[in-house]
Amino acid sequence: MDSNHEGLPGLEPQNQENDRAKINGRSANEEAWHATSAAADGNESGTIYSSAVSFEDLDISPKLQAELLQGLYVEMGFTKPSRIQAQTLPLILQHPYKSLIAQAHNGSGKTTCFALAMLSRVDASVNQPQALCLCPTRELVAQNVMVLEKMGKFTSIRTTSTIAVTPASASRQADPFVGP
Ligand SMILES: Nc1ncnc2c1ncn2[C@@H]1O[C@H](COP(=O)(O)OP(=O)(O)OP(=O)(O)O)[C@@H](O)[C@H]1O
User: Fold this and answer.
1) pLDDT above 70 covers what percent of the chain?
2) What catalytic activity is recorded (predicted)?
């Protein structure tokens, strides 16, 4: 978030963000996305890496480019990459592929970074699992599957999920009175 924002008196930082988002009529996620996107438009070009101004700038697989751009524009409703997307996607999509650890604010668009990378780097003509996304919670599994299905809607790529059942999670499921 913009570090120049004055804090709202009497609120914790997280509550201040939520409150500011409510005042602007946006969800906290939307607010965060607008803030990071605005920063990307500013004069913060100190990076040694190239960054993408548009989704067309990216090395999306030529075989899937039209379908994935349709997914991004039509299904997801995006117009241009957010800052974290602009900075990371060229690294993930360009040969030689790099391993990447990235950190950015909640709601800054990180999911698209790995979702688009997974969809672009699989070979849709090969009918076998080619990309694996490990998630720490079942809610994130559901959220990521939804994004992958929407973004990949115009491709023939299929997404499926599996949830590990541990003794602890199995006993929680068996007892309806134990919390999530
Ligand atoms: N390039 C973009 N243009 C417009 N909206 C976007 C863009 N990228 C992401 N969004 C939207 O911003 C919201 C937050 O994106 P996303 O969930 O990918 O962020 P995140 O960084 O993964 O969040 P979290 O840290 O909470 O998991 C979503 O509603 C998503 O559709």
Assistant:
1) 65
2) ATP + H2O = ADP + phosphate + H(+)
Cα torsion angle, 35, 41, 44, 48, sign: positive
The string of pLDDT tens digits covering residues 76-109 is: 999 999 999 999 999 899 888 888 999 999 999 9
Run of H or E including 32: helix 28-41
Q: What is the ipTM of this complex?
A: 0.96
Ligand 1, closest atom to CA 76? 31
- Cβ < 6 A, ligand 1 pocket: 29, 33, 76, 78, 81-82, 85, 104, 106-112
What is the rounded CA–CA span in Å between residue 123 and residue 87? 24
pLDDT category at 171 given cuts 50, 70, 90 is low
Q: Sketch out the chain's domains with CATH numbers.
A: 46-173 (3.40.50.300)
Q: CA 37 to CA 82: how far, in whole Å?
A: 5
| Cα(37) to centroid(ligand 1), Å | 11
Question: Which numbered atom of ligand 1 lies nearest the CA of 33?
Answer: 12
